[in-house]
Amino acid sequence: MTLVKTVLDGLDFTTADAATPFHIAIGPVGVTVLCAGGLRDELMAYFAEALVDTLAPELAHQTVHLLPDQGLNWEPDWTQWAREGGKTGRKDAVFDLEGARLVLKVRSGVTFLQSPDHAIAFGPLQDNVSTVINFINTQVLNICQRDGWQLCHAAAVTGLGRGLAIAGLSGGGKSTSILRMMDIEGMRFVSNDRVLVTAGAEPRALGIPKHPRINPGTILGNPRLRDMIAPARRAELEAMPVADLWALEEKHDLFIGEVYGPDRVQYAAPLTDFWVLNWSHEADTTVAVTEVDLSARPALLSAIMKSPGPFYQHPDGRFEPNGASPDPAPYLDALQDVRVCEVSGRIDFDALAGIGQQLFAGSL
Questions:
Q1: Per-residue pLDDT tens for 198-245?
Q2: Which terminus of the chain has fewer Cβ atoms in its 10 Å neighbourhood, N or C?
C-alpha cells in the first residue's frame, strides 16, 4: 500500500461527495469545490464574481475536496519549508509522497494533499477560511504555471484597452496604488497580490479571486475607504507618525463589489504596462515613472518574481524544491513586449494616481 492510499483511506469523503458542488472559472482554468455546510456557503459568497453554473469542457480542471475536522491517523516526518527573504517564523511544512505532497500549515494545523489527481484540505477548516480560499486559488496558479504562465507578486487593474500591473517590496504600496487606479472611470480590478503573466502577440495577465486585505495606511489614504475604520480608531491612526502608520500590520478585508459597485472585477486582461515601486518617504524628489530595461535591473525583477511555493508540481512531476528561487529568464520573456517602468522619488499616491489617469487616457 502506498502512503498516498494510506492518506486517502484515512479520510471520509462521504459528506463532501454528497454535497452539491460549486464551480469557479478563471481564464483558462475551472475549479470544482466539494464541500458541505456553512463553509460551502461562506466560500460561495467569497467567490461570487468567479462562480459559474457549469464549466466549459475546454477549461483545464481541478476538483478540490474540503474535509473539515478530519486528520491523518499517523504523523509524517515533516520538513520545514524555507520562507522567502525577509520573512521569519514557521509557516509551512512538507512531506513528499510518491507523486504527491502533504503540506501542513504549522500554526493552524490545516493539512493538504496536493497532486494533479488530488487537491484535498482537511483539519480545522471552518476556523481558517482564508487558508482554504488560498488553497482553492492555488489550483488556478498551479495549472497556469504548468502551462507556462509566470507568477508575479503584483496587483493589477484593466480598462480602456490597457492593463497595468504594479509590484514592489512588501509594504511598498502596491495595494494602495492599484486601488487608487480603481477610482479612474472604466477601471476593473484584476488582482491584489498575485498576477500570472504570459507572452504572446498580445501579453496577457490573469488574476485570482482574492479580495484585497489592506492595512490602515491604505484605508486612510483613500477617501472612498475611510469608513472601513471606526471614527475613534481612525483618529488614533491619524495621530501616528507616517512611518509607523506605513509599517502597521492591521488587516481589513475589502470586497470590491461593496466599495466600487457591480461588474468591477475582470480576472483575465491584456497586459500593456508594469510598474515597479522603488520609492520612499525619505526621498526629496517628486514621483517619476521611467521606462527601464528589466534585464539590466535585477533588483526590480526580483520585486516582480514570486516563488510558486510548496504546492506546485512541475510538468515532469517534480514538486518545487525547498528553498528554490525563480528563474529570471521566463519572466523576461513573458514581459518582453510589456512596457516596464520604475516608480521612483517620494511616495505620493495622489501624484501616482494622476500619472495613472494619463496612462489610461493614452497620453503617457
A1: 988 788 999 999 999 888 888 988 888 988 999 999 999 999 988 788
A2: N
Q: In the structure grid, which three cell numbers stand for residue 289, read together? A: 515613472
Distance in angstroms (rounded) separating the CA atoms of residues 265 and 191 = 9
Q: Using one digit for the tens of pLDDT, what is the confidence trace for 174-199?
A: 988 999 999 999 999 999 999 999 98
Of 133, 116, 164, the C-alpha closest to 50 is 133
Phi, psi of 83 (to 5 degrees): -85, 160
Report the C-alpha gap between 65 and 63 in whole angstroms: 7
Interior/surface letters 7-29, b for 16+ CB within 10 angstroms, e for the rest:
beeebeeeebeebeebbbbbbbb
> What pTM does this model have?
0.93
How many CA atoms are closer than 13 Å to the CA of 116, on its beta-carbon side? 14
Beta bridge pairs of residue 167: 154, 276
- What CATH topology corresponds to 150-212+254-360? Phosphoenolpyruvate Carboxykinase; domain 3 (3.90.228)
- Domain range summary for the chain, segments of one domain joined by +: 3-146, 150-212+254-360
Q: What is the b/e burial string over 142-181, where b = at least 16 CB atoms within 10 angstroms of the residue's CB?
A: bbbbbeebbbbbbbbbbbeebbbbbbbeeebbbbbbbbbb
Please provide the size of the chain in residues. Answer: 364
